[in-house]
Amino acid sequence: MFLFSSPNMTTLPPSLPPSHSQTICASLLQELQVIWDEMGESDVERDKMLLELEQECLDIYRRKVETTRKSKADLHHSLAQIESEIAKLVTSLGEHSFSSSRGKGTLKQQISYIRFVLEELRSKKKQRMKEFTETQSQIAQNCAEIAGTGQSMLPSDPEVDERDLTVKKFEELKSHLQELQSEKIIRLQKVNSHISMIHELSVVMSFDFSKRVSDIHTSLIFPANGQSKSISNDTLAKLTGVVNSLQQEKQKRLQKLQYLGSTLIELWDLLDTPPDVRKRYENATSLISSSVDEVLRPGSLGLDIIEQVEVEVQGLNVLKASKMKELVFKRQNELEEIYRGVHMDVNSDAARQILINLIESDNVDLSNLLSSMDDQIAKAKQEALSRKDILDKVDKWKHASEEEKWLDDYEKDENRYSAGRGVHKNLKRAEKARSLVSKLPSLVENLIVKVKAREAEKRIPFLYDKTSLLNMLEEYTVLRQAREDEKHRSREQKRLQEQFAAEQEALFGSRPKKPLGQTNAMVGTATGRRISTPAGKHAVSGLKERRETGRANNVIPLNFVALPKEDPMSRGN
Fold this sequence. Notes:
By secondary structure, the protein is mainly α. The protein contains 17 helices and two strands. The chain folds into three domains: 145-243, no CATH class; 253-377, no CATH class; 381-415 and 424-572.
């Protein structure tokens, strides 16, 4: 059996023309037939060898088919992998405009087309990854600057989530970056504002600005290696604290300088300081009415300026002390004169010692002390004015009491009518004294009423030279009544003696009378025991003893003004 003439012969590939193949095979078979003829091969062997040759050809075709099928499967697998990668990239990038369709044509044509799509998507992903990386790096850098963690803490390559590289996600990152950049700008503005404020305050108060700010963060003054200024929360907090402390210090210094300036002006006015001296401290005194925000002149609140003004104030205070002492004691003298003028109690020695202690202690403002003493003087004048009405009546009472005493002594004088110098004047004075003494009871009674009314209003006793005026008036009333009773008993005793002498003369005839001076001496002894002053407290105890011994014969009424009395002055005449 011939191989190529066999009905089971395998069909040649279409790429090999049949005529040419058959010619070659026929030629080869013919050559093989010649060889077999020469060898003497039998037909059986020849058929067997032809079958083997045909089988080998079939095996080669089968292997080639299998290899081709595998290549086809690999192409399908590659196509599926590419489609899967494209699907992931489309999902990741959100690029739904890219189609994963294979297109038309053979597998290799489809793979060629879809690989072009894949490369385009990969390029798109690479570009998107770059954008994401840059954006996230900027976000991380801004976050680090805001947090104050520093550049060394930043990762070299930020991790990007490749599963979501969509435009929406990228826009979210860009929006977040813009927010961080805006916050960074705001923080940087705050930092610069604080630094500017610290510089302004440092200039006004003569502080070392660079040291103050660099102590907070060196980047604020000396940024290195392209490092930007620190804008972290910690830096902002420290800057805010420094600004607040400097503002408080500025307020404190301004208040101190304003106080010193006001004190300077007061001392200058008090000591008549010339204008040329005042001009040297014009920088300090010009700030007296300024607010904190208005003080911007460099060095105007420096410690050297404040210390200079303090030294000047201390020096002027030394001069002021001596002059103020003079003024204080002058006020004290004026106050004492007012009190003494209205018979009010004032302990001059104690008051002056208190003033000396206050001045020497340096714990009192002499200006306030002078002002206080002026207030005391004003109150003392008001008090003196309110006492004037009563004191005028006290003066009348005391004058009338003195005249009463003189009149008593005058009437005891047996020679008052004898010729001599001054008799006429004494007679006139006696007449006036009797008129004045007659008004004493009503004067004392009215005075007592006024004193009681004042004491009820003021709720304090009315003192006259440390003594209760009401007690003085009551004691005087009692003593005057006692003197009147004493006079009455003396007159009655004299009348009885004269009556007894007259009866004896009628019985036994005329006899020598006792010298008139003896009788008068007895009377003078009795009446001479009265108290000469209306305020004598020692006389009260003696009066009480006499009242006890004479109570059996006479009862002294409490208010002698209410009883009818015989005018002793008229009896003398």
